[in-house]
Amino acid sequence: MHTLLQAVRRSQRLLVLFALMVLLPVVIFAVLVVRASRSERARVEYEKTQRQRQVVQFVETELQTWLFAPGPDSVAREALVRFEVQGDQVVFPDFGLSRSVGDSPPLRPANPAPPSGPLTAALVAEHYFPRIQAFRRDLGAGRHTGIQYFRQLRALVVQPPGGARGYVVDIETVLARANATLAGLAAGEAFTASAWMAADRAARPPAGSFSLERFPFLEILFEDAPRTSWLELRGQAFPYSMGLLVLVTVLGSVFVYRALAADARLARLRNDFVAAVSHEFRSPLSSILALAERLERVRDPDKLHEYHRIIGQDARRLSALVTRLLDFALMEEGRQIYARERLDLVATTRDAIASCQHVARPERIRLLGDQAAPLWIDGDPTALQHAIQNVIENAAKYSPPDSTIEVECARQNGGHLIEVRDRGIGIPREEQTRIFEKFYRGRHVAGMNVQGVGIGLALVRHVIEGHGGTIAVESEPGAGSRFVLRLPGRDA
Ligand code: ADP
Fold first, then answer.
1. What span, in angstroms and rounded, lies between the C-alpha atoms of 443 and 269?
2. For residue 412, what are the β-bridge partners?
3. Is the pLDDT of residue 15 over 60?
4. Contact 474, 303 (CB under 8 A)
5. b/e string for 125-152 if b means 16 or more Cβ within 10 A?
């Protein structure tokens, strides 16, 4: 009870230590990581917006230069119509046309759509001249600074300040120019960019769009670039690596905790083992010593015979225990190599039963099955005999002294099996796999005064598995247990 309380206290302390040393830092670390990754995302978002503003400014300047500055890359070469203002005349040199600006422009051109087919002087006069008149009027009134968009005509009228020359440019040409520039600027960025005619849109501009200050009819729409896995990885590298770090820390600490807990458990079991072994030695030794002292004075032959029998039984118990400890030591060192001889399992089982007399009267154990038919296997006779003996001894230890133990040898599916059945205390379901662990003693036997050190079944399993076999248990607490050892057979 005392040691149990100590163990509980120890593991509680271990848990608190674990919480303080590992869980707390992990939680703090995880909170920091979440916060850091949030501000990292905000930073990335801010940088993206800044970059987009730069792109917008660059496009604006580029368009402005293209439309206004004379030079080889100027819009002049791509213009639909070129004109020159001379006094109160607008001259169209490519069409041999000249018109007086002073003529008041019609409120609406007769045909507002852009003309189709090749341009003629008549078409220019009908479609473009009225817009140029309106343009000049608005320029004079300061409503624009030399660029005006005519939505229905789908064209810009441009006249660089201070100059006499002007142009009419198809809006598609402007858009194509802006989009080509945008494509170059957005390459490698986390966004794509495209130019739209804001003036053509009835609906509100979509989110993520920027209007150009000097070209209010034009709008640039930014969208997130379809992420390639590389880009995504690069963008998310920080949160991913932090997440991975937390995961590794948590897994590592769970692993360390489990190893610590397993170590502590093993140390506890080992202590119990040493106590149990000492106890196992002490009781037969005390009995032998006491009887040896009395022997000198005893003259009654019946008593002498009885003492002789008890001393022999205790000595055999001690010898069996020493053998088991030595086998266990060999198994622990990994040096236990089993001999391979042709042997009959029925005969080995019979020998094992005969060696169990120190724990059970011979009439308690019944050997069933066809004993005339040998069951041949290749194996180590001593190790197998000890293993079978161990299971039978357990059956005897953990059942009432007058109950029967049945041992049956049989052939099954090309292999052989030995079954040991008792009508004893049984084993709770949750302990049925643990009883094969070394040093493990059932909790259900703790209160009983049954001797044992908890290495028997671990040894049995080692021997049986070392022979390519298996061991299984079926048990019902209060009703009894059934241990089945299966071993591969050999042909006669
Ligand atoms: P022990 O020296 O304690 O008998 P073993 O390794 O032989 O060690 O057995 C481990 C545990 O398995 C025992 O402590 C006991 O709780 C349980 N056990 C083994 N055989 C039986 C059985 N026939 N009936 C009930 N419990 C058993």
1. 12
2. 415
3. yes
4. no
5. eebbbbbbbbbbeebeeeeeebbbbbee
Tokens 């041949």 belong to residue: 376
Tens of pLDDT, residue by residue over 200-235, are 655 566 666 788 888 888 888 888 877 655 555 555
What's the 274 CA to ligand 1 centre distance in angstroms?
Answer: 17
Nearest to 469 by CA among 395, 392, 412, 398: 412
The residue whose CA has the least distance to atom 4 of ligand 1 is 452
pLDDT tens column, 140-199: 888 888 888 888 888 999 998 888 889 999 998 989 999 998 888 888 777 888 887 766
Query: Considering the domain 341-488, what is its CATH architecture?
Result: 2-Layer Sandwich (3.30)
Cβ burial of 229 (10 Å; 0-12, 13-18, 19+) is exposed
Top mutation candidate among 321, 398, 430, 464 for ligand 1, by most atoms within 8 Å of CB:
398
In three-state secondary structure terms, 487 is strand
DSSP H or E segment with residue 301: helix 301-333
CA distances from 38 to 133, 232, 315 (A): 56, 16, 75
> What was the pLDDT predicted at 209?
76
Cα 460 from Cα 418, distance rounded (Å): 13
User: How confident is the model over 266-305, as pLDDT tens digits?
Assistant: 888 788 788 778 877 887 898 899 888 888 888 888 988 9
**Structural domain spans, the chain:** 2-66+231-266, 72-226, 341-488
Average pLDDT over residues 22-36: 78
Cα(441) to ligand 1 centroid in Å equals 6
Residue 205's pLDDT is what?
Answer: 61
Ligand 1 pocket at CB < 6 A:
394-395, 398, 422, 424-427, 435, 440-442, 445, 452-458, 481
As a whole number of angstroms, the distance between CA 190 and CA 188 comes to 7
Q: Rounded mean pLDDT of 29-48?
A: 83
* Ligand 1 centroid from CA 322, angstroms: 18
492: number of Cβ within 10 Å: 6
